[in-house]
Automatic annotation (TrEMBL), chains A, B:
NCBIfam families, per the entry: rRNA_methyl_1
Record Pfam families: SpoU_methylase
Family according to the record: Belongs to the class IV-like SAM-binding methyltransferase superfamily. RNA methyltransferase TrmH family.
Species assigned in the record: Aliirhizobium cellulosilyticum
Originating gene: trmJ
Name the record gives this protein: tRNA (cytidine/uridine-2'-O-)-methyltransferase TrmJ
Swiss-Prot/TrEMBL catalytic activity: uridine(32) in tRNA + S-adenosyl-L-methionine = 2'-O-methyluridine(32) in tRNA + S-adenosyl-L-homocysteine + H(+); cytidine(32) in tRNA + S-adenosyl-L-methionine = 2'-O-methylcytidine(32) in tRNA + S-adenosyl-L-homocysteine + H(+)
Amino acid sequence: MSGTNSERELIAEGPAIILVEPQLGENIGMVARAMANFGLVELRLVNPRDGWPNEKARSAASKADHVIDGTKVYDTLEEAISDLNFVYATTARERYGFKPVRSPVFAAATLREKFKAGEKTGILFGRERWGLNNEEVALADEIVTFPVNPAFASLNIAQAVLLMSYDWMKSGMDDLEETRFQPIEQNPSTKEQVLGMFEHIEEALDARGYFHPPEKKPKMIDNLRAVLSRRAFSEQEISVFRGVIRSLDRFPRKWPEKIVPRQKKASDSGETEGNDSGE
Amino acid sequence: MSGTNSERELIAEGPAIILVEPQLGENIGMVARAMANFGLVELRLVNPRDGWPNEKARSAASKADHVIDGTKVYDTLEEAISDLNFVYATTARERYGFKPVRSPVFAAATLREKFKAGEKTGILFGRERWGLNNEEVALADEIVTFPVNPAFASLNIAQAVLLMSYDWMKSGMDDLEETRFQPIEQNPSTKEQVLGMFEHIEEALDARGYFHPPEKKPKMIDNLRAVLSRRAFSEQEISVFRGVIRSLDRFPRKWPEKIVPRQKKASDSGETEGNDSGE
C-alpha cells in the first residue's frame, strides 16, 4: 500500500533497534523499512553474518535509505548498548530468571516515558533461527514478549520489529482512534432538509401508485420514513439521495398491470425538476 | 523467534482476511503466517495472479498449513464477501468519499463486538503495487488505515495483515499488559532478611578495612544501606546476593598498602561460613 507523502516531515526519534548477529540482508532491510514506517531511525547491528554495507538490505528496505545509511555495526552486544540507559530484550521463549516480563504496550509506554526524560533506550532482537541467548538477555533491563497464538508463536525478526515499532508510535498518540485522514467533512442535515427529502420521494412514489391500497398510505409512509431516517443523513447525503430520486422520477415506468395510478401529472411524461426545496 | 507450543490449543476464529488479486505467493504465505500468529484462520483470495494452490505460499507460511489448506479462491470480490455481514477496506491513501475512516484499534474493537454478536466479518487488502481501487473500497462498510510515519507510509501486504491481526488479538485481551509468561515467582523479603544481608556484607567489609577512617563508618553504612535498599529485594535475590558476599568473603585479599585492618578475625584465613542468619 502506498500513501507516502514525501513533503511531510520525516519522524526520526525513539529507541535504537539492535539486531544481534542478523543473517539475511533481506531481513535487515525489512527491519529498516518497518522502523521507518513508525518513525524510528537508529539501527545497530552486532556482528552481521554477511558484513556491512549489504546491498540486499538496501534493496529490501524499500527506500528507507535514511535508516540504512545511519546503521552502525559493532563487534559485541556490550559495545552496541554501552551508551544506552535502558534496554529491552525481545523473546518469544519463556526464560528462567528474575527479569520483569512486559507486554509490547507496557514496554512502549516505558520507552516513551524514558524518551521524554531524555534517556537513551534500545530494544534487542535476536538471530533469525534462535533469538537471543541467555547471556544476551541478561544484559537487558527487562524482557518484552508479544501476545501471540500460543500454538503458533513464531514471528520473524522483521515482523517483531514492526510490531514493537508500531506500539512505539501508538505510545506517542493522544488518541488511538485518530486516523491520518478523514472522510469528506459533512454538515448534519436539518429537519427541514430531511422532511423535504421525505416529501420528494413520497410524491414520486405516490405518482407511481406505490401507496396501495390507499388506506394503508399513512402506515406505509411511517415505515418508509423509519427506514430512511435510521441513519442521520448529512446535507451531502441528502443531496446525493435526492439526485437519485430525481433521476428515477424523470421518466415514468410501465405500470404494473394491476396497479392503476390514481393521478397522473404532466411532469411524469418528460423531464421534471421534482420537488427541489431544500437542495 | 521461536516459542511455539504445539500442545496448546490453536486459536482459530475472527474475521476473514481477503486479499484482492495478490501477486506473489511469498506474500500470501507471509499473510497466512501473520494470521496464524494472532489466531486468524480464514483466508480468501480474489483472482490470485499465479493461481492456487501455490507452493511458494506454503513455504513462506512457515507451517501455517491450517491457514493455507483452508484458503478459498474467488473470481470476484463480490463473491468473496457475499456471505459476510460487515467488511473493512484497508488503505494508506486518502480516499475521496463519505465512508467512515477508522484506526486499527477502533476497527479491531468493532470487529470483536460483531464477532461476539455472531456476525461474519472480513478485512480487504489490496494488490502489492497499488492496493484497492475505488470500486473495491466502495464494497466495504468502512475504511481502516494505519497510523504511520507520513513521510514513509508504505506497508507491504503481509505487514498490513500482521498489524491488523495483532490489533484483533489485542482487542480480545482484558489486560493489554498481560504477558504469556512471567519471571520466576518471588517472595518479597522481610526486614529481618534485609538486615541480615546488611550485617553480612558490613561485617565482611569491616574485616577488610573498608570503613576508613573509623569516624566515617556510620555515614558510610548509611550510604551503603541506601544503595542496597533502593530496589525492594525479593527473598531469592537476597539469597543470590548473600552467596556473592560469602564467596567474596571466603579468602582475604591482599591489604592495600595504606589501609591497615583494624581487626583480623580467625575466619579471615581460610573458609568461613560468614553470617548466614536468614538464609
